[in-house]
Amino acid sequence: MRIVAGTHRGRRIAAPRGTTTRPTADRVREAVFSIIGPVDGLDVLDLFAGSGALGLEALSRGAASATLVDRDPRAVACIRANVATLGEEARVRVLRRDWRAALGSERTAGRTFGLCLCDPPYSLTDRVVAGIGAALSPLMTSPGIVVIEHSAALPPPEPSGLDIATRTDRTYGDTAVSVLGLAPR
Fold first, then answer.
1. Does residue 34 fall inside a structural domain?
2. Residues 67-90: pLDDT tens digits?
3. Is there a domain that residue 169 lies in?
4. Cα–Cα distance between 82 and 145 in angstroms, integer?
């Protein structure tokens, strides 16, 4: 895998070994950031970060900071190695937590994010999407963007608890992404 664009363009990053992590392909990351547009200055939350590729891509493209969350110890070790490879330790926080616990601790700490990247295991997408809206909404700046990666074999997710102003759904092979623009508050 490599970083597609920005200051780290072309730099290689690793994916965790094993079959529990499904890294987002370079072409899908490129497409997602083409849909999102500029991310300059945004604070980014990457849930189910895996290798950290999505959050690190955002940093390379000008995001101010990234919080990368995964509960798998192998994924967290890989994320930390990728952050070190890119020399981004000052702008990245890595949390080894379940997504619910991470959202709770970020809310308690008063943190907010302009972009949330959510790439749960496909088998958990429905359960995550059902619970994420209400927990994520207070953490999002106005307006914010939420990206949900999911299986193309299933209908696009419908998260409740988020005030969605715009929506773009795209399919890339067996991967689909939903880019949700949140309404201003």
1. yes
2. 999 999 999 999 999 999 999 999
3. yes
4. 24
